[in-house]
Amino acid sequence: MSIPNPAEGAQGRPASFPYTLAIFATVLYFALVVCAFGFVSLLTDTDVVPQADAGPLVGPVATASAVVTVLLYLLGIGRRYLRDLHEAIAASIGDPVRLPLGRSVLIGIVSYVVYVLAGAIAYSIVTAEVFTIVLFAAGSALSGYAIAVGVLAAAVSVVYMLVLGSGGEHPARPLWPWER
Question: Does the residue 62 lie in any domain?
Fold first, then answer.
């Protein structure tokens, strides 16, 4: 019988596994967004920010806002997952931990809205005109770039939750022969 290590969570995983996985999923999301922007730009022969007076920071600010939104969402899911897992272990019940896969649509919508609004606010700051928020938001809301941001956020959150929940009976770290 082995002595439980408090630094490890259930199933032999380190307690930081959901958080580390969330960071990797966020980096994946950012890479996919950059890739999607490249393909949309190539296929439609448009710029990510079509307004010439927008400056070089409007697009990165909007993208960074969406990436931070996805990161915070995934960290929240990981925190809830760990809490539920510890409660299930303490209560000695099977596997009651459920991951909210249906909420992936919600994070897709939220990241889409954050992308559009952050870009609109950044554009209005650059142009120093308040009314441009509405014009920029209306122009970018139906662009392929904003849609790609939302769809990829939903897809990455589904994959994150599937990887998080697929722990199975085997620990996530290799075991020494005396630990088996």
Answer: yes
Joined together, the tokens standing for residue 139 give: 């122009």
Cα–Cα distance measured from residue 20 to residue 43, given in angstroms and rounded to the nearest whole number:
35
Q: Is residue 2 part of a domain?
A: no
**21 falls within a domain:** yes
Structural domain boundaries enclosing 114: 13-168
Number of structural domains the chain divides into: 1
- Note whether residue 114 is domain-resident: yes
SS3 60: helix
In 3D space, the residue among 156, 163, 157 whose CA is nearest the CA of residue 36 turns out to be: 156
Q: How confident is the model at residue 14 (pLDDT cuts 50, 70, 90)?
A: low
Q: Tokens 């950012």: give the residue.
A: 30
pLDDT per residue over 88-141, tens digit each?
777 776 555 677 888 899 999 999 999 999 999 999 988 888 888 888 888 888
Mean per-residue pLDDT, 16-29: 92
The 8-class DSSP code of residue 2 comes to P
